[in-house]
TrEMBL record:
The lineage of its organism: Bacteria, Pseudomonadati, Gemmatimonadota, Gemmatimonadia, Gemmatimonadales. Transmembrane segments: none annotated. GO terms for molecular function: heme binding; oxygen binding. It comes from the Bacteria. This is Group 3 truncated hemoglobin ctb.
């Protein structure tokens, strides 16, 4: 007769997380528009961040943002431009804004995706936010986090 090993609460939780991760696909190029649509829909509901995005026609701007992320994540080369420039004209940005943007990005990515590209997207989000804060003269909300790229 075989003897089964006791299953701990931690084991059960780990198995549950693994099943949830397996149910969520990794980020790929085709997922960027739906993911970014969900992200900016969440931003529209955030009283701190919404004023910075309200003037934008997000439907028109989203393909350009997707090209930016595609270039960062998948080296597609589709984005040509200066992502920093529009942010230089946003008065009153603080570390709190960047912290909220990062938390929202991580929450939306985690709710929809799991895998190496999803983790890389979150890490790159940290790198972008860190760099922008430095260029804007804002002490970064979080220390630099390498994306591994």
């Amino acid at each position: 007769m075989s003897q089964s090993l006791p299953i701990t609460v931690a084991d059960a939780h780990e198995a549950s997380v693994a099943r949830e991760d397996a149910a969520r696909p990794d980020v790929d190029d085709a997922a960027l528009i739906p993911l970014l649509t969900a992200f900016y829909a969440t931003i529209e509901e955030d009283a701190l961040l919404q004023p910075y995005f309200a003037p934008l026609d997000m439907a028109a701007h989203l393909p350009r943002i997707a090209d930016f992320w595609s270039t960062l994540l998948f080296h597609s080369g589709r984005y040509q431009g200066n992502a920093f420039r529009p942010h230089a004209d946003m008065p009153g940005l603080t570390a709190e804004h960047f912290g909220r943007w990062l938390a929202t990005l991580e929450r939306v990515v985690d709710a929809r995706h799991s895998g190496p590209a999803a983790e890389r997207m979150k890490a790159l989000g940290h790198r972008v936010a860190y760099s922008m804060q430095l260029r804007l003269g804002i002490p970064p909300v979080l220390p630099f986090r390498s994306s591994g790229d």
